[in-house]
Design goal:
The chain has about 625 residues and is an alpha+beta fold. Helices cover about 40% and strands about 15% of the residues. Helix 6 runs antiparallel to helix 18 and helix 11 packs across helix 17.
Length: about 625
């Protein structure tokens, strides 16, 4: 896993100021060095520059980047170069055909496979890849730079067009190392943060002029400009398999995805939360390691004081720890229990903005950032149980009538909670509710339905699509930035495109049975789980319940609202904010997802204020 960056301008001759542009590439690399500190490299030609920060996972010695290969001889020789972030899980299936076509491999890394596949098959070769990836390829023959992103959007790829040239990077911070790219906020960007944040509209990078390659898309930049080309989306199809066949297919797909993602030249670990998703991943991974005479490292996360202060609610009915211990009796692993205290968590709210370059899921992001830093001391690669709920229908808005029928994003339909201490005229002028609803409707317009589907089935299909395109993206964005900030590669087996494609069309009555969410996944993997875990009610990522955390948030937030020069002061109603701080916080009514309630609203605006100050953003 790595950090990529670079630029391309057909009206430039970078070699004419070689030392200057090489330094820019070094600066871009330096800003991303946390994503890969094992090696670095740059590539500069008259119209293009590429930089790479490497986290060595496969072919430790031979996989350096930027990787350059040529086709042809003498004057007819054409150069191709790649910078790549990700992992390809089906290289063994691609290599034989490429070898038959005459390509000679100098390494065993997947980077070379990607580059040769492009050279062999052209721009559409990406459909042959199974993996997580973001990469840029310079095609010297056609004089074009191509930016790719994986189907699910697991790996990031930001870009901007400035002064007739394209700049790209794994994270926005690297774009700002280029002399033409400056961090600025627009009305649209502010709407993104306040109306739908911590989610983001696909393709929008929040800062002025910054976009992101959409999941399942690639872009071609040439002398003719920039073209965006979709290559994948979930497709609506009739599901013809019986229930028994569906169980068998899901069982195969899940186990195959996990096993494929164990590929690595360094040890792999798993996050073990005590839920069924991470437990399934852990069971398969532990068995795979045992076959190779090795013991899997596993890690669980919680907050200091939750053993005393935990409060059961409809979203989080019970603690995870007992179920972690039950799973550890089933799978013999090297396990570490990780905890985060209140002070560390509040401080990490700022650090995670540094990691993400924008506000996020507050303590959910901040704690994961902290935990990943601890995991990275032991392992470079981790498998997680992320994304199963979006695909198998695990969230309450898939089956609770009042949530399912919301006219808006089901995880964030109540705008009043978001605007509780915003100035009324500011809310009215920005049209936050209208902006959120427009993004919601724009997405639903892209959903296709089966002929004869009833209204309830159509609604659930729409919710499935919204979850894949929005909620899942938010969690994947969080996972990438919080893990890669410490050079930890997080893999997501449930986001395998084959699983997404298949489950998208499985009827709801197969996924949800007898009032049990994800019943299909439970049956498909029943042999992997202890009985107690197999029948456990879903519980989301843990949250802090210690009253000291809320007290610290209130102190930090109060400092901001009493500072007339604070960046958020122009759109905060200070009196309403004071009343909010003084009132008891409702933990059972989240304003985003399942975890972000009253305390997290304060934390979110603490992050917004820090973000605006860090990047000198103003209205």
């Amino acid at each position: 896993m790595c950090g990529i960056s670079g630029f391309c301008n057909f009206r430039q001759n970078y070699i004419g100021q070689q030392s200057f542009w090489e330094q820019i590439l070094h600066d871009m690399h330096g800003s991303l060095s946390h994503r890969g500190s094992d090696a670095s490299g740059i590539y500069l030609r008259p119209q293009v520059g590429l930089a790479h920060a490497r986290l060595s996972i496969r072919d430790i010695e031979g996989g350096s980047q930027p990787m350059v290969r040529t086709m042809g001889y003498g004057r007819r020789a054409r150069e191709y170069a790649i910078v790549y972030n990700g992992e390809i899980y089906n290289t063994d299936e691609l290599v034989p055909e490429l070898a038959r076509r005459g390509f000679h491999f100098q390494t065993t890394c997947d980077t070379e496979v990607i580059l040769y596949a492009y050279m062999a098959y052209g721009v559409d070769f990406v459909t042959k890849l199974n993996g997580i990836f973001a990469f840029a390829i310079w095609d010297g023959q056609r004089q074009q730079l191509l930016l790719y992103r994986d189907r699910a959007g697991i790996k990031p790829n930001f870009y901007t067009i400035q002064n007739g040239g394209l700049v790209f990077a794994s994270e926005p911070k690297a774009l700002f190392c280029h002399p033409d790219a400056k961090p600025e906020i627009t009305v649209e960007g502010l709407r993104e943060v306040l109306a739908i944040g911590p989610a983001r509209t696909p393709g929008i990078g929040v800062f002025r002029g910054i976009g992101e390659v959409k999941p399942g898309h690639f872009m071609i930049y040439s002398r003719d400009g920039l073209r965006e080309i979709p290559y994948w989306d979930v497709e609506t199809k009739e599901h013809t398999d019986s229930y028994e066949q569906t169980v068998e297919k899901v069982s195969f797909l899940v186990r195959d995805a996990i096993t494929r993602q164990m590929v690595s030249d360094v040890p792999v670990c798993t996050f073990l939360s005590g839920g069924i998703d991470s437990s399934i991943v852990t069971a398969v991974a532990a068995a795979h390691m045992k076959e190779h005479g090795e013991v899997l490292n596993t890690f669980s996360f919680d907050f200091t004081g939750n053993d005393v202060y935990f409060q059961s609610n409809s979203f989080q009915p019970e603690r995870d720890l007992p179920y972690v211990n039950i799973m550890l009796q089933r799978c013999q692993t090297n396990h570490s229990y990780l905890e985060c205290d209140q002070s560390t968590l509040v401080d990490a709210l700022y650090t995670v903005v540094d990691a993400k370059d924008m506000p996020g899921m507050t303590d959910v992001d901040a704690s994961l950032l902290y935990f990943c830093a601890l995991v990275a001391k032991h392992n470079k690669v981790a498998l997680t149980g992320e994304c199963a709920d979006e695909i198998f229908g695990g969230y309450p808005w898939f089956y609770r009538k009042e949530l399912m029928e919301r006219d808006g994003f089901p995880w964030s339909a109540d705008m009043s909670a978001r605007t509780v201490f915003l100035a009324e005229d500011f809310c009215r002028d920005l049209g936050l509710a209208e902006y959120s609803h427009a993004r919601y409707e724009d997405t639903l317009k892209k959903v296709t339905y089966l002929q004869g589907e009833d209204e309830e089935a159509r609604r659930r299909r729409g919710i499935s699509y919204l979850n894949i395109k929005w909620f899942m993206q938010t969690l994947l964005d969080r996972m990438d930035r919080t893990s890669m900030y410490s050079g930890l590669e997080a893999r997501v087996p449930f986001a395998d495109h084959r699983i997404m494609e298949y489950l998208y069309n499985v009827p709801w009555e197969m996924k949800y049975q007898n009032g049990v969410e994800k019943a299909l996944l439970r049956e498909a993997c029943a042999d992997l789980l202890p009985e107690e875990l197999l029948h456990r009610k879903k519980s989301p990522y843990p949250k802090p319940y210690h009253p000291g955390y809320e007290k610290l948030l209130a102190e930090r937030f109060t400092e901001i609202i009493e500072d007339k020069n604070a960046p958020i002061a122009p759109f905060i109603d200070a009196e309403k904010a004071r009343q909010f701080v003084a009132a008891p916080k409702e933990l059972g009514k989240p304003w985003f997802g399942q975890l972000m309630a009253g305390p997290q609203l304060m934390a979110y605006f603490i992050q917004i204020n820090y973000w605006m100050k860090k990047y000198h953003l103003s209205l």
